[in-house]
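Quality-control log, excerpt.
Job 1 of 2 completed; input and output follow.
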Amino acid sequence: MHFPTASLLLLPLATGVFGKMHEWAFCVKNRVEAPSGGTAFSPSYSWNKNFDIDTNATQCACTMYRNRNTGGEWWDTCPDCVYDETQLGCHSPAVHIGGDEITYYCEEKCGAEGAESG
């Protein structure tokens, strides 16, 4: 059986070109991060993140992100972005939400402390 090794080697590069794209995004406030489990520098050392969802800022950022058109890249438009009242987040079924971009809208345009996406 023959596998094209060149395409396997280029796969990590191809995914890095697009950055992290997300289906869901939330503007947040009162974010607290604290260590949980393990000891420093051990493989089991991890952090917990707690925050409150800023619903007003999330609605604001989602609307602004849906209305943006900054170029021809996937994340430059979000025609399917909609605020979901049941999940309290901005939803893009086609995964148009860029992490850096939504953070900018949450923090700089809508007054949130930060953003979380997934």
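Job 2 of 2 completed; input and output follow.
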Amino acid sequence: MGMATIAGHGFYGLQGSWGRGWLAVCLDGSTRIMETSMPIGYEECALFGTRLLPWLVLQQLVAFPRSLSMITSRLRTVRDHIRWAVSRFHEEDVFFGHGTDNAWDEARQLVLGALHLPWEIADSYLDCRLEVDEISELQRLIKRRINDRVPTPYLLGEAWFCGMSFIVDDRVLIPRSPIAELIEERFAPWLANEPARILDLCTGSGCIGIACAEVFPEAEVALADLSYDALEVANQNI
């Protein structure tokens, strides 16, 4: 495969038909050809073929009105995407309150969670370069967080409660109860002895009952809910 340069950015070209007969190219991450209507730089280009696009064809391609345009993307590392997400969250006035209370923690939760990286990741790992599919997935999730206002735990399918990870989706509320602190303190000073039985009524994801079962292993714990959908989620978390 050949290589050429556009405005100082190297790219590898792939030629083929796309959409209404347009030609598309796959770039190396520095420069990308994308639909002008795509919001916040989310890439949805179909790639075909294996032959380098001639410079003349490329000039004709980007000249078509309302079809494709070329933009420069410098989002390559974990740190880049956290910083970019923070900026976009502030710009779009995103609400926080499902496990975080600020743009920085929200961005870290979304980016690190999507990449299956631990929250306590070493700072040097933040400068690791991402694969193309990882970049596309991160931008897709950040777009949904902003445009659709989908909470990060729903996007990741995971929420934390009492230091435990729970499966969550839109069938249940996102765990964020202050009861977590009471559980961790074993309900002191109000509970003098360990309980024999515990009922988690309207259990949802099951987080409260399951956390209680961890703290009070000798207790008999029951999870109850009117919603069969919620009970399905709770059952996955047991």
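Post-run check on job 2. The longest strand covers residues 31-35.
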